[in-house]
Structures are given as C-alpha cells and as structure tokens.
Amino acid sequence: MTSINHIRNFAIIAHIDHGKSTIADRIIHSCGGLTEREMKAQVLDSMDIERERGITIKAQTVKLNYKAKNGKNYILNIIDTPGHVDFSYEVSRSLYACEGSILIVDSTQGVEAQTLANVYQALDTNHEIVPVLNKVDLPASDLDRTKKQIEEVIGIDTENAIPCSGKTGEGIKDILEQIITTLPAPKGESSADLKCLLVDSWYDTYLGVVILVRVIDGKLSKHMKIKMMSTSQEYIVEKVGVFTPKPIDIDELKTGEIGFITTGIKVLSETKVGDTICDALSPLKEALPGFKPSKPVVFCGLFPVDSSEFQKLKDGLAKLQLNDASFSFEPESSSALGLGFRCGFLGLLHLEIVTERLEREFDVNLLTTTPGVVYKVFLNKGEVIDLQNPSSLPDPTLIKHIEEPWIKATIITPDQYLGAIIKMCQDKRGIQTNLSYSGNRAVVNYEIPLNEVVFDFNDRLKSMTSGYASFDYEIIEHREGDLVKLGILVNGEPVDALSMMIHKDFAQKTGREVCEKLKNLIPRHNFMIPVQAAIGGKIIARETIKGFKKDVLTKIHGGGATDRKRKLLEKQKKGKARSKQFGRVEIPQEAFIGVLKIAKD
Hints:
Elements lengths: L6 E8 L5 H11 L17 H6 L6 E8 L5 E8 L7 H9 L3 E7 L6 H12 L3 E7 L8 H12 L7 E2 L8 H11 L12 E10 L3 E10 L2 E2 L3 E4 L4 E4 L2 E5 L3 E4 L1 E2 L4 E5 L13 E4 L18 E7 L5 H14 L4 E7 L3 E8 L2 H14 L4 E3 L3 E2 L1 E5 L4 E4 L11 E16 L3 H10 L3 E8 L2 E9 H5 L2 H8 L5 E12 L1 E8 L2 E2 L5 E4 H18 L7 E7 L2 E8 L17 H20 L6 H12 L1
Parallel strand pairs: 1-3, 1-4, 4-5, 5-6
Antiparallel strand pairs: 2-3, 7-8, 7-16, 8-15, 9-14, 10-11, 10-16, 12-13, 12-15, 17-19, 17-20, 17-21, 18-19, 22-23, 22-24, 24-26, 24-27, 25-26, 28-29, 28-30, 28-31, 31-32
C-alpha cells in the first residue's frame, strides 16, 4: 500500500503548441501506462477536433506508477491542461486538484503570453513549479536565451530547468526524478471524515455522469452514501475508478488521490465543478473554497440555414451542453432568420469549436450572427439589466448609462512589430499600462474593451506579426462607455439580426459600410428600397436600391405632354407607392453573411 508521502499530483501547463500533450505521452510511456501498441500521438486528446487542430480542449487525468532511482514506488497523478485563453477555467480547476506544476517552455519560441497567464495562476494556487525546456532536438533551440527570458519575464529560478524533447524522449527520466524530489506530497488526514473536491464532470452514454474527484481527507469507497454540499443532494457511489489512461475500477480512493466515481446522476447540472463532496452520514460543517463558475463572455445567435433543421440543432446543443457546462443557450426568434438560439461562449475559439462540432457531429448547417459581449444597462429607476442581445435594449430615455466589460491584455512580441501593435490597440480604444523588454522581445500590457477584441483582434495581431506575437487576456471589470445601439432599417422595417452595440465614435462609419454592403446584396424589387442605419430615431446613413422601371409610355405615339401620358405616369406612381407600402423585402441569407463579414473585417 502506497503512503500519502509517495503520491505526487501535478498539472502540465504551457502556452499553446509548446508540447504539453506530447510530454504527457512520453511520461505515460516511460511509466508503462500503455504498451507500445496502444500508444498513439496525443493519447489524452480524445476528441477528433482536438486531434485535428492539435489543441487540448478538455483537461485529462492519468494515474501512473513510477519506481524512482531511490528504489521506492510512487504514484503520479498527471493532469494535462489546455493552453488556450478560452479554456483557462479548465486550467484553474485542474490546478486546485494538484500541489505542483510542470511548466513547459518551447526552447525555440521562449516565453509567450499564455505561459505567463498559466504560471501566475499556478503561483496563486501556491504551486511548486518545475521548469522544463522542450524541443531541444530542434536546430533553433536556444537554452540560454530561454532560461534568461523565464527569469526576466516570469521571475522563476531556472538553475534546475530540465532540457528535454517530447519527440525523442530525451530528459523524460530527469523530469520524473525532479517531480519526486521537488514537488510536495499531498496533505490530508486519512482518519478524518471524507472531504472531496469535484474537479470535473462529463456525460457518458453508458454510465451517466462521470465525476472526477480529488480526495482531500478520508477515503471514498464503493456503495458509500455521499452528499454534494452545494445542492445538499445525496447519492450512492456505484463505481470508483482511476484512469491509467484506460479506466480501471477499484474499491476505494484514499487521501490525496485523484480518480472518478459514478452515482447514477443523469443530469450534468447536478454536479457543480468546484463543489465539495462529503460523507452523508457525517457531513462537513463548511465546504472547500471551490472556485468561481465560468461565465460566458461572448454571445451570438445560432440559426439553422434550413428552418426544418431547428429540432436537430436543439438536440445537438443539448448534447454538447452535457459535456460542456460552460456553454449556455436559450431560444431566440428573428423576423429575418426564423427560429434559433442565443448562445453564450467563453471566447471566440470556444464559439468556433462548438459551431464546428454542431456541423460535424450533428450535421446542421449554421448561420451565426455577429458575436457580442454582455453589457450592463443602468436604468433611471436604479435597476441594472444584463444585455446580451442588442435588439432587446430598452428605450434610450429610460437608460441612465451603459457599462461594457474591459480586459487586461498581455501581448508578447518581437520588438520590430511593436509600433503596429500599439497603433492597433489605440484604434481599439486601448489604454497602455506597461511596457517592458526581455532581449529583443517586448511585453506590453493594455486595458481594452472586450467588444473591440471579440471579432478579429487575434487574427490581425497574428497577421501583422507573421504569427510571432502571442496574446492573452483576463476580464477585469465593467466600465461606463459612450455606447449606442446601431439599428438597420430596410424599407422602413428594423432588421433585428443586424442591430449591434457600438461606440458612438465608430457608429457613423460602420453604419455607412453596412448600408453600402446591403445595397449591393439585396436584389432589386419593383419599387425603390431605402436602406438606413439609425441611432434611436436619428438616421445616420442611407443608401437607396433603385426599383425596376417599366416604360408605360412606349405604346403612345406622338410627342408632347398629353393628358394621357400624364395619367399613365400618375397611375404608375400610385402603383409603386402601394407596392412599397405593402411589398415585403426578402433579405437573402448572403446579405446577412456579407454584413457579418464587414463586422469581422
């Protein structure tokens, strides 16, 4: 039996593409978790989309047995975490379940923005950190420069940093030895009452909801009656197990261990991430501090291109939500796009992943409206409402002021691109808070409204720096802004799906662009169609789509303005006025897609 001093729980943290999942593969292979035949690249990335994009979306855990050089046997519990900013809540909850972290830095790229963010999160959780310099087999690897950067930018001592290669397996044994000697063992009382942290949960077709737990005190065994402290619900444990990385059933999880349980729960909403699990027969007086639930920050409408696929879309969203509690949706209808859903995401990559999974796994053709953020609208009466959809903004006379979310952005870039980045941040209403250098790389901090970052900030940053700059952000607060709702009217009718919240300074330019785009995309009708952009009742931009003109005078011979000609023109004029009054303007789907592209460009 392994004592608690021989357990090590650690997370693997790094920027995107610095080699977390590959090093996890090497550690699993080195400890004999899987045979040579069962090994495959990124063994912990189980979703197709993770494997295709080469990114980790869900944090994964593995329990391994390792015999150290001192001859003792140790249990290693690894959590492989995502590196992308949208999934930072996955990282934060993984860190709570561990005592230490392996920080992987690509020795060819050096420290990047997400490296910083994840290290600070680990340090806030009081983690011991083992720095690892990956990709030493590549010719561009520069260990001295990378060590210097880690010391200057992050402030961690790199004297014992381990050079390694996830590709060749060099240095993996050194990492394992360093984990044993540097990282602390878990603390906990094995004789105390059960105290467990709920780290993650997901839905399995055969088992129902599977719950990933970290036992803090006591032990968790089969057939035990447990209680979830946030909901006060009680359940019987049906199954206890660990991942090696294959799921293996065991009888009990002891103090300091990480494993999974099933209790016959069918709905994911009953298992709140960060909740405390205790023994129902001797419940705890106070829960663990847990951590803040992830809140959606970007909202957009998802509509099926073919309205008959609405039910298919609804079922797809419900199934995706089973495995992704951070994603939310509610029904929405639009006069232009029909029935759909207003969905909340953690960021643009999250939005992209969800829409791609819907199209791929559930075969639904989707139309997404312009992504927007959550505004706080303060009314004169003193009420505050959260506004996700611009079309539901109250009457401007009832509004005292509107606040928008701001972020703190960290950008790390080679210094030759700094001027272009600073100009872009200023155009986006950014406020510079800090600028420092490490060698020829600049670390610049900005406070920027989230709405300005949501569309294209990352893409533009990557294209203007040839992909060398990296970007990370965290939401800091809501601040008052001079914001207005830009409405689009076609033939005098407001089009809900195209309305957007925008800063007053940019409203006229955007309004003009949208009107010009719609003029080219809406087909001509028998009558003239005005396309207008408006703020409240004030029109700020207008374009006119000319109507088809039938020449009613061709049958009449002879010149001069006779009464007969005048009567025919008068009759045509009345007919056009009537068709303009009763005629409906069908806005084709391409027009919506075209306008959404403007917003992104």
